Amino acid sequence: MPKKVTAALSVPLLAAALAACGGGGGEQSSTSNEITVWTEENLEDRMAVQNTIVAEFTRKTGIKVKLVGVAEDQFSQTLTAAAAADDLPDVIGALPLASVREMEANELLDTETPGRIVDQLGRDTFSARALELTSSGGTLLAVPSDGWAQLILYRKDLFDKAGLRPPDTYEALETAAAKLNTGGVAGITLAIAPKDSFTAQSFEHVAQANGCQLIDGSGNVALDSPQCTRAFEFYAKLAKNYSVKGKQDVDSTRATYFSGSAAMMIWSSFILDEMAGLRKDALPSCQQCRENPEWLAENTGVVTALKGPDGSAPAQYGEIVSWAITRDAAKDSAAKFVSHMMNEGYERWIGMAPEGKFPTRKGFDDKWDKLPAGVDTKKPLSDVYPADVLDALRKSPDTFARWGIPQGQGKLVGATMGELPVPKALSAVVDGSLTPQAAAAQAKADVESIKRGIRQ
């Protein structure tokens, strides 16, 4: 499934917890022979891989690591409790952008050590965009480890037959959707379910392409801008005229494309192993796929960044996850651990799920596509997808764009993902109860209300 959407931290609870613990206790030694590391990569098989890397780190340095898996949907609650008990971990891994900004806002981060780690590893070996998204005012807040991308997937065979160009602009996307919406095949399958965070991710992908921003340079909600209104209109037109009827969501869009009943869809890179027939619980079911499980993967093209008529440059939605070091950490020991995970242990880290772990370190991108992907069957992505597709995926972190993150509004981003005002407004355009202009205005008003409710 597309990942990761993290709900906002419970700010009033967290503020109270910080007050109760006196702002974090006293100074802590910069070195320790034992550190605690939380990881949101908490699935059993991924914990096993991480424990192997940890054991290697301990043998090399003598520093013991207590590795604790934390469920994504329990992170806020767990962090609040740890802050109240003055018992924060030293390091947190696989932390999404919004959560990094939350920790920054609540002064829970060590903001000196990440820059030191990146400089020692080689700043030029990191994706510049990944560093930008994890920085605030020129200060690196965490060490970006990897990312996943939102993609436009399209049937190359149908496009070639119809003489269509790849759907990398609004115009090309709509032209293809209209032309291929025939013969029992939808032009596109598009998420529109109002209570699904996947709808929010899919729309943000399309909106960013047109220069639509959640927050403007002055800190104001900007969802009623001309760029955003056009994005609402465009997305709703695709969903209404060329997509499958009904409130399509994360599961139904995948099922429709996998059955061969849609010419395009928007989905995350986590679909790459599924589309190649490497997961039994999500197998392609198209007629051609019965004889060749990899048929759909072989006949699917990938567009990473999209460009709208009002956008200054192609852009795409993507998530960067990072290694964060907490304010009370044993900094030198924590730095050694993160450096190990980003160097000696990095290939195994991204190898846990290559389809959703695009490397942010350039020295490893040539190894990434050769790492085994899949669940029930393992196979390198390079054995399934052509070089041009993999090259585009490899470079995609450099075009990631996110609402609110560059403006330091991670707290608001998390809160909107909890309440989903944009999917609700978007769904209302598709069912005809709101115009695009009214939907943009409603979404703006709802986000402003959420913003007022957040303690700044």
Could you explain how this protein is built, in words?
This protein has 456 residues and is an alpha+beta fold. 42% of the residues lie in helices and 13% in strands. The protein has helices spanning 11-20, 44-61, 75-84, 97-105, 113-121, 128-133, 156-162, 170-180, 197-209, 226-241, 250-258, 271-275, 295-298, 331-341, 346-350, 365-368, 387-395, 410-419, 421-430, 436-452; strands spanning 34-39, 64-69, 91-95, 135-136, 139-140, 143-155, 264-268, 300-303, 316-325, 358-359, 372-373, 379-380, 400-401. Strands 1, 2, 3, 6, 7, 8, 9, 10 and 13 form a 9-stranded mixed beta sheet that branches. A two-stranded antiparallel ribbon has the order 4-5. The protein has a two-stranded antiparallel ribbon with strand order 11-12. Helix 1 packs parallel to helix 3 and helix 10 packs across helix 20 (436-452). It is globular, with a radius of gyration of 22 Å.
Tally the helices. 20
Largest sheet: 9 strands, mixed
Number of separate domains = 2
The SS-based structural class is alpha+beta
What is the CATH class designation of the largest domain?
Alpha Beta
Write down the oligomeric state: single chain
Radius of gyration (CA) equals 22 Å
Q: Give a count of the beta strands, DSSP E runs of length 2 or more.
A: 13
Strand content: 5-15%
Name given to the CATH architecture of the largest domain: 3-Layer(aba) Sandwich
CATH topology of the largest domain: D-Maltodextrin-Binding Protein, domain 2
Low-confidence stretches: 4-27
Overall pLDDT metric: 92
Distance N to C terminus = 32 Å
Principal-axes geometry comes out as globular
What is the CATH homologous superfamily assignment of the largest domain? Periplasmic binding protein-like II
Helix content: 40-55%
